Amino acid sequence: MFVNLYSSASEVKQQQNTAKTDTTVTTVPVGRKRLTLGESIGAKKAVVPPKAAPANTKEAEIARINSFSSDKDRIIEYNKKHARGNYIIVDKKDCSATVYDKNGKAIKKFEVGLGMDVGDKKAGGYNCGIASKIRKYTAPGEYTLGEQSAASDTKYGSNLFIMEGDGVAKDSVDEQVAAIHQIPTQRLAQRKGLFKNGTISDNRMSFGCINMLSDDFDEMEKIIQGTGTKLYVLPEEKGNKLQLEMQVDGSLKFVQTKYRNE
Known about the structure:
Elements: H1 9-21, E1 27-30, E2 33-36, H2 57-66, H3 71-82, E3 87-91, E4 96-100, E5 106-111, E6 114-115, E7 141-146, H4 153-156, E8 160-164, E9 178-182, H5 188-191, E10 204-206, E11 210-212, H6 214-222, E12 230-233, E13 242-246, E14 252-256
Parallel strand pairs: 3-12, 6-10, 9-11
Antiparallel strand pairs: 1-2, 3-4, 4-5, 7-8, 7-12, 8-9, 13-14
C-alpha cells in the first residue's frame, strides 16, 4: 500500500484558500439529528410552563380553613385574620362559653346552661305555643350578638343579647329567637343551683337559649365588645361539623352541615 506524501503546489494553495474561507460549523451526526460541537447530546430545551390563573382568594381561604381537623380549630384560625375583637365559642359537650382574643388565646371560660334537648337541630318547630311540643335545642352555627328588646328587661334585666343567626326552625309558628342571657327571673330558684355543683349533666335546662349566672354575664360583658360580638356554637352530634361557606352576598360564614335546610 502506498501513501502519497506529496501534493502539487496548486493543490496546496487550493487547500489553504479553502481553510481561510470556510466558516461552516462542523457537526457530528447522532442518529437523525446533527448536533453542533459543544451541544450536549440528549439535552432538552427548557420548557417554560404557562402562568397559572390566579386562584379565587375567597375560595382559597375557604379551602384552607376547612382543612383544619376540628370545629374549634377552624374558628380560631379564621378569626386570627378576620376577627374585629374578642369572640365567644360555646361548647355544648362541656356546657361552656369561652371568650377568645383575636390571636386565638382563651381569656375566660364560663359555665352555661343550654337547651334541654341534646342534639343539633334548630329550636322552635310546630306548636311553639305548647311548651311540651317546643324543640328545645341550642343550634350550632355562627351568631352575632344584637340588641335586646325592651320587653326583656323584666325577665333578664340588662343581661341579655339576642343571637342573630340561623338557630330557629323555618316552620316555627310563633316568632322565636335565641339569646344568651342571665337565668330568667322566674326560673332563678330552679336553675341557679344547677351551676357550679360539680356536674354538667344537669346544665341542659333551657328552651334553646344560653343561660348564665348574672355575675358571670357581667364579667363576660366586660371582655367583649357587646353588640356585634361573634358567638359560635359547636355541634355535638357525631358526623356534624361547622364549615366555612360563601354566602349569596359574598360574605363568609360558618354553618353546620347536618340540619342546614330546616
